[in-house]
Amino acid sequence: MDWKAAAAALQPEYLADLKKLVAIDSSRDVEHQTDEFPLGPGPAHALQQFLAFGERDGFVTKNIDNIVGYIEYGSGSEYFAVLGHADTVPAGKGWTTDPFKLEVSGDNLIGRGTSDDKGPALAAYYALRILKANGIHPMRKIRLVIGTDEETNWTGMKRYFETQPAPCGGFSPDAEFPLINGEKGNTSFEIKFPQTQDSVVPQLKSFQAGLKENMVPRDATAVLTSDEPQTVVKAFNDFLQTVPVTGSSETESNLIRLAIVGKAAHGMEPKKGLNAGTYLSSFLASQSLDPVGQKFVTFIAQKLHDDSRAVKLGLNFTDEVMGDLTMNVGQMQYTNDTGGLINTNFRYPQGVDPNRIAQQLQAATATATVRQISNMQPHFVAIDDPLVESLMEVYRKQTGRYHDQPEVVGGGTYARLMEHGVAFGALLPTTTDTMHQANEFQPQSDLLLAMSIYAEALATVTDK
Ligand SMILES: [Zn+2]
């Protein structure tokens, strides 16, 4: 069987289908939720589009309450699962093309979701098409399960696992090649600074940075009042000379508006981004502000800024197999009416007790309240597990990269929902990771290679 030729033959149809998926803005949109669309219409429409491909091509499909669904191939009592997702993070700013119009530029496919995860999930779907078109009958069913809330709360996929029988094994095409056999624990904390004072000048009136806990904020803005606005602006411009981010300011009588543009990145490795919010806080902490506003920005500047390993909080920890604990400061909000709110997200290896993170945060903040809002334990499948070995063998054979080894990451994928689950593709080691960033792209050749790898992998793991 020439898997690569089979994938190449499907290229025009794959591209046409991906175009349809990218055109749907499927970021979580609960503000427009209805009984029909519990997460807003966008995520449901992207799911429906996926399932429509399955119906068109003669597969069994099922839509569960417009929040999760599956496309199934084969027969048997057990099934092997492939868990992808049709939602995306919000488009965000900084795009040079329309994020919802698939742009083909040389080998690159540009658009929100091309890399995370519409492109790879669709490649996995096309792998099912290859099996079916070539008369390959697996010894057990294969289900491509499509979630619609992966980027936030996993609402749909959790419902799936509550209501459907568990798979005998599976992979998630929602990360990188070669293969991820371990995922760090993932926990988020909300830190609340209460407002306790009447209006004073100078004052921090508002502060805003970040869209989601799992992204490094690209943009931050603050509004403050001062008796000497020009002095503040001058200090801000001086500050900008010393940091790797850019910024701008506006004044209107004693009101000053400051903005910083950093670099967005996935929250699992905050080092790859530049956090606009913590940079802006570190400037504001040097200015004279009202006590509550001052406490808010000083905490961020002194305890959270430029510290992806949480050294200043005393939380730095490295496990030999699973690597470093990391911290992302994903959201920072403040108004002079309501006070401040910070959302920090930690990815932790085996050996870290998340309760200790809460204690250290609380100790560092004094007057603020710290609350854990989510937690997932670390996940690990042994490197000599037959599933890991089979998938690695197919990957190595098709890419020629015989020395690549399975790895442990900070990103949480759906793989952790399966006792016997790993993440497998579709980002190749040679390709730039643009997930969650502006101008997200994935090379078409990578996606066709992923399709070919997935087809052979699925045939291999279900042939006995
Ligand atoms: Zn994803």
What is the strand and helix layout of this fold?
Blueprint: H1 3-9, H2 11-22, H3 41-56, E1 60-64, E2 68-73, E3 79-85, E4 103-105, E5 108-110, H4 118-133, E6 141-147, H5 155-163, E7 169-172, E8 175-176, E9 180-183, E10 185-193, E11 203-209, E12 215-216, E13 219-225, H6 229-240, E14 246-252, E15 255-261, E16 265-266, H7 276-284, H8 291-304, E17 318-319, E18 323-324, E19 326-335, E20 339-348, H9 354-365, E21 369-376, E22 379-380, H10 386-399, E23 407-409, E24 421-423, E25 426-427, E26 441-443, H11 444-461
Parallel strand pairs: 3-6, 3-7, 7-24, 8-25, 9-23
Antiparallel strand pairs: 1-2, 2-6, 4-5, 5-26, 9-22, 10-20, 10-21, 11-13, 11-19, 12-16, 13-15, 14-15, 17-18, 19-20
The site of zinc ion has 5 residues, from loops.
